[in-house]
Amino acid sequence: xxxxxxxxxxxxxxxxxxxxxxxxxxxxxxxxxxxxxxxxxxxxxxxxxxxxxxxxxxxxxxxxxxxxxxxxxxxxxxxxxxxxxxxxxxxxxxxxxxxxxxxxxxxxxxxxxxxxxxxxxxxxxxxxxxxxxxxxxxxxxxxxxxxxxxxxxxxxxxxxxxxxxxxxxxxxxxxxxxxxxxxxxxxxxxxxxxxxxxxxxxxxxxxxxxxxxxxxxxxxxxxxxxxxxxxxxxxxxxxxxxxxxxxxxxxxxxxxxxxxxxxxxxxxxxxxxxxxxxxxxxxxxxxxxxxxxxxxxxxxxxxxxxxxxxxxxxxxxxxxxxxxxxxxxxxxxxxxxxxxxxxxxxxxxxxxxxxxxxxxxxxxxxxxxxxxxxxxxxxxxxxxxxxxxxxxxxxxxxxxxx
Length: 402
Description:
Blueprint: H1 12-15, H2 20-46, H3 53-61, H4 80-91, H5 95-114, H6 117-129, E1 134-137, E2 153-157, E3 160-170, E4 178-187, E5 191-199, E6 209-213, E7 225-235, E8 239-240, H7 246-282, E9 284-285, E10 288-289, H8 294-322, H9 328-353, H10 364-371, H11 381-390, H12 392-396
Helix pairs in contact: 2-4, 4-5, 4-7, 5-6, 5-7, 7-8, 7-9, 8-9, 9-10, 9-11
């Protein structure tokens, strides 16, 4: 396996914007990834298993689940840019593992920054330690990107709510025990009363909850599952956020997630390209290294060029979000272009190294399998283009010249 030391130059644009403390956090995460994540995730992929749960436990012990939580609760109070860089360090070795850990970390941040005092008292310490694991539960069998079509209901009862319905494609759904569930609130007196989010504690022995693993080809480390609730009780104080703000907050979270995914895609493609260039520099054919053949060299040069373009777009979108801007169009553009570039680029790398790329002596087949899922999460390419298209007049229209 090729070492990934020396990758700092590719990430220099974001690294330069981090505080010294944040740079130290990234360096610590980078070291952990080389020591623990690199070999174990590849071995797990080869065995058709998810990454070892011990990685999650050690990640939590280092405090990384609380990356953006306040220091008063054991967090680092880090920026959005630092969050992206940690995810990229993991994505160099496994996109799916990075997506999984990033998803869990986001749930800690959500409760730490927007949870009520009662919710923080009940759940925050457990989330920081990794005893409690959260995840957004938005998608349903008949409601994917169209969150307005969701069918999960929350029926008012004494001192709480009874949630009924099914959420699907829940990242880490096989292990989470505190998902944030989006549902239609049903008031017993007035009928439907808007959309709300609920922190739903799932007891392993609860008869009101059924989990079903979603088996995928190459995506075991996402630990995706379907979660079905049957009149599952949630106390009043577990309703998350201000009344009627749940839908808006969910859409804002998806917008930020698009930039997370785009950033992880560029890191994974960088990893694939680095491994491919190293192999093609050592492997000879017809008396010279593979990279000495002009046709192959040009193919990899095209990958490198598009990778840099994708990275520049990711950095631009990330900076806007870090500064508190919505950046809806930029987030959509960054995800669409980065995902397409990464999937195409890894395929190019696979063709350049030949059949050895399909074996576990390299990481390319793992990258190829895991990156495919980036095309479906947080908005498909078609949906993202539609989002960009709807904003064309606002973003690109100028007064006619002449």
